[in-house]
Design brief:
The complex is a heterodimer of chains A (95) and B (468). Chain A contains three helices and two strands. Chain A is mainly α and 95 residues long. Chain A has a domain at 5-43: Histone, subunit A (Orthogonal Bundle). In chain A, strands 1-2 form a two-stranded antiparallel sheet. The longest helix of chain A has 18 residues, at 21-38. The radius of gyration of chain A is 22 Å and the shape is flat. The two termini of chain A are 41 Å apart. Chain B is an alpha/beta fold. Chain B has a domain at 3-239 and 421-463: Amidase signature (AS) enzymes, CATH 3.90.1300. Chain B contains 14 helices and eleven strands. An eleven-stranded mixed β-sheet of chain B has the order 1-3-2-4-6-5-10-11-9-7-8, sandwiched between helices. The relative contact order of chain B is 0.14. The mean pLDDT of chain B is 95. Classes of the chains: A mainly alpha (95), B alpha/beta (468). The interface between A and B is large, with 53 and 72 residues.
Chain lengths: 95, 468
C-alpha cells in the first residue's frame, strides 16, 4: 500500500501536528518506504489466528471503588502553562 | 580502583562494613561526571548535591517520573515538567535506601530511537568511541554506567532500548517479563511493550536491581501479582545439562561477521561449561520489525495525544484551540516523534485498521507461539543482541528504516512479553563491545541470571573498561 501527500496531510491534521511544506515532502517519502516494508505482513496467512491484544493471560482487572485522596487541584495545576482559579486555561473555543 | 568504578554490590558491601560512606561515593561520582560528561553527554541533569543524600546513587532515564524533579523525556514538549508523584520504581528504590536525586540520563525523545540521537539535549557519545552512538533509546543510562559516571542505572525497553545500548556500551542490560515491573510513572511510549529494567556493570548488580523494582502494583493493572523470587539465589555458576536453543533466523544475512564470530565463541564457551546446544527455529522472526512498527506507533500515537499544551509542558501561542494544539505539537516534538505519531495515526485510521493494526496483532500471536514452541523443549535461547556493533553518529539518521532494522534481534522479545538480558561477550577489531543476548520464558528471569552469571564469571569481558 502506498501513501500520498494528501493522505499524510490529512493524517497529520487528525494527529494535530502542523507540517511545514518541506516536512510534508520528506515525511511522505519516508512513510511510503516504511509502509512498503511493513506490507510484508500482508503475505502471511492469518486465518483463525486470534489477535494478541494482550500478551499475558489476565483480563478484567477490577478493584473496589473506594474513595481515596488523590492529587489536590493545586498540585494537578502546578505544571499548567496557563490556568485560572482551579481550571486549565486554553484559547477561546466558542466565538 | 576508585569507588565510582566499583559495582553496586561491591559498594553495598563496603557501606555495610563501614569502609566507605555515601558521601565519599557521591563525591567521586560527581567528580567523574565533571571530568567526562562534557564529552559523553550521558546526563541531562546532574548536580553536586549527590553527596548530601544517603544511600547509593542510581541514574534514572529521563522518562521515569521523579516527584518534583524535572522529567522531560528529552523532549521540548515536556520542558520544565516536574511530576507531582514518584514512579513506583522510584518509591521502591527509596525504600531500598537508594539516592536517585538528581541523576537523569539522556535518551531518544520519548524513547523513539536506537541511537540517542533524537534527544532534545543533543546526542550521547559512546565511551568506547566518542564518534559512535551509545545505542538507544536508553543510551544515556548505558553510557553513564560504561564510563563509570554511574554506579547503576534504570532504563526502559520497548523494542530493545535497554539491551541494544547495553551491548553497544559493553555493560549488562535486562528487560524483565512484561508485567514483572510496574509501569506506573513511566511516561508511556507503547503500553503493551514497555518495561523498566536495570543497566549495570555486572549480572549480580542486575539481579539486585531487578529484585528491588519488581512486584505487583495496584497502580498498574498490567503488573502481575506473582511472587518475586530472591534473584541473587540464581547467581550460581552451574549450567550443566541446560538446554540452550540457537535460533537459525538470527544468524542470516545482515549479521556482521565479527559479531557472528564472537557469538559463536560464546556459544562454544557455554557448551564447554556443560550446556547442551540445539539449533531451533523462530520462523516468524522476519515479521517482527514490521509488526512492531505498527503496534508500537499505534500505541504511541494514542499515548502522546496527551501532549497538547494544556496540562503541562510547552505551549505555542495561537488564536484558537485547534491551532494551539497543532503549533504546540509541531514545535514541541522532534522529527522522529512526528513520524511515529503520524504513522501510528495512519495504521489506526478508518479503512486501514484491519489491514495494518488488526493484522499486526494476529502476527504478534504467531511470534509469541514461536517462542512457546521453542521453550517447550529449551531452557533458554541465546543469540546476538544486535546485528552490528555501535555505528557512527549521523550514519543512520537520514534513513529511518535502516535505523529500525538495528533492533531486529531485540524486538521479538517485547512482542512475546518474555524477559531477556544482554551481557558483554567480546570486542570488534576496532575495539567496540559486542553483546550476547539470553532469552527465557515469561517470569523466568532466574534462568537469565543463571546463564548470564555463569558466562560472565568464566570470561573477562565485563572487566574491560573504556579509556576516556
Amino acid at each position: 500500500m502506498s501513501i500520498d501527500k494528501e493522505t499524510v496531510e490529512q493524517v497529520a491534521h487528525l494527529a494535530r501536528i502542523e507540517l511545514q511544506p518541506n516536512e510534508l515532502e520528506k515525511l511522505s517519502g519516508q512513510l511510503h518506504d516504511i509502509l512498503g516494508f511493513i506490507d510484508k505482513i500482508s503475505t502471511l496467512n492469518i486465518e483463525n489466528i486470534a489477535p494478541a491484544s494482550h500478551i499475558l493471560p489476565i483480563s478484567n482487572v477490577l478493584r473496589e471503588d473506594v474513595p481515596h485522596i488523590s492529587l489536590t487541584p493545586e498540585k494537578a495545576l502546578e505544571n499548567a502553562p496557563s490556568k485560572q482559579g482551579n481550571f486549565f486555561s486554553v484559547p477561546k473555543v466558542i466565538e | 580502583m576508585e569507588l565510582n568504578q566499583l559495582t553496586a554490590h561491591e559498594l553495598l558491601a563496603k557501606l555495610k562494613s563501614g569502609s566507605t560512606t555515601p558521601d565519599a561515593i557521591g563525591k567521586l561520582l560527581y567528580a567523574r561526571i565533571q571530568e567526562v560528561d562534557a564529552r559523553v553527554n550521558a546526563y541531562v541533569r546532574s548536580s553536586g548535591l549527590i553527596s548530601s543524600f544517603g544511600g547509593l546513587p542510581v541514574t534514572i532515564k529521563d522518562n521515569i517520573c521523579t516527584d518534583g524533579l524535572n522529567t522531560e523525556c528529552c523532549s521540548k514538549i515536556l520542558q520544565g515538567f516536574r511530576p507531582p508523584y514518584d514512579a513506583t520504581v522510584i518509591c521502591k528504590l527509596k525504600e531500598f535506601g537508594a539516592n536517585i536525586f538528581p541523576l537523569k540520563a539522556n535518551m531518544d525523545e520519548f524513547a523513539f530511537g536506537s541511537s540517542t540521537e533524537n534527544s532534545y539535549f543533543g546526542p550521547t557519545h559512546n565511551p568506547w568511541d566518542l564518534a559512535s552512538v551509545p545505542g538507544g533509546s536508553s543510551g544515556g543510562s548505558a553510557a553513564a554506567v560504561a564510563a563509570d559516571e554511574a554506579i547503576w542505572a534504570l532504563g526502559s525497553d520497548t523494542g530493545g532500548s535497554i539491551r541494544q545500548p547495553a551491548s553497544f556500551c559493553g555493560v549488562v542490560g535486562l528487560k524483565p517479563t512484561y508485567g514483572r515491573v510496574s509501569r506506573f510513572g513511566l511516561i508511556a511510549f507503547a503500553s503493551s511493550l514497555d518495561q523498566i529494567g536495570p543497566i549495570t556493570k555486572d549480572v549480580e548488580d542486575a539481579a539486585i536491581l531487578t529484585q528491588v523494582i519488581s512486584g505487583y502494583d495496584p497502580n498498574d493493572s498490567t503488573s502481575v501479582n506473582q511472587n518475586v523470587p530472591d534473584y541473587t539465589k540464581s547467581l550460581t555458576k552451574d549450567i550443566k545439562g541446560l538446554k540452550i536453543g540457537i535460533p537459525k533466523e538470527y544468524f542470516v544475512q545482515g549479521l556482521d561477521p565479527e559479531i557472528k564470530f564472537s557469538i559463536e565463541e560464546a556459544i562454544n564457551k557455554l557448551k564447554s561449561l556443560g550446556a547442551s546446544i540445539k539449533q531451533v527455529s523462530l520462523p516468524h522472526t522476519e515479521y517482527a520489525v514490521p509488526v512492531y512498527y505498527i503496534i508500537a506507533t499505534a500505541e504511541a500515537s494514542s499515548n502522546l495525544a496527551r501532549f497538547d499544551g494544556v496540562q503541562y509542558g510547552y505551549r505555542a501561542k495561537a488564536d484558537n484551540l485547534i491551532q494551539m494544539y497543532k503549533k504546540t505539537r509541531a514545535e514541541g516534538f522532534g522529527a522522529e516523534a512526528k513520524r511515529r505519531i503520524i504513522l501510528g495515526t495512519f495504521v489506526l485510521s478508518h479503512g486501514y485498521y484491519d489491514a495494518y493494526y488488526l493484522r499486526a496483532l494476529k502476527v504478534r500471536t504467531l511470534i509469541k507461539q514461536d517462542f512457546d514452541q521453542v521453550f517447550s523443549d529449551c531452557d533458554c535461547i541465546v543469540a546476538p543482541t544486535s546485528p552490528s556493533a555501535a555505528f557512527k553518529i549521523g550514519e543512520k539518521t537520514e534513513d529511518p528504516l535502516k535505523m529500525y532494522l538495528s533492533d531486529i534481534y531485540t524486538i521479538s522479545v517485547n512482542l512475546a512479553g518474555i524477559p531477556a538480558i544482554s551481557i558483554p561477550c567480546g570486542f570488534t577489531k576496532k575495539g567496540l563491545p559486542i553483546g550476547l543476548q539470553v532469552m527465557a520464558k515469561a517470569f523466568n528471569e532466574e534462568m537469565l541470571f543463571k546463564v548470564a552469571h555463569t558466562f560472565e564469571q568464566n570470561t573477562e569481558w565485563h572487566k574491560i573498561k573504556p579509556k576516556l
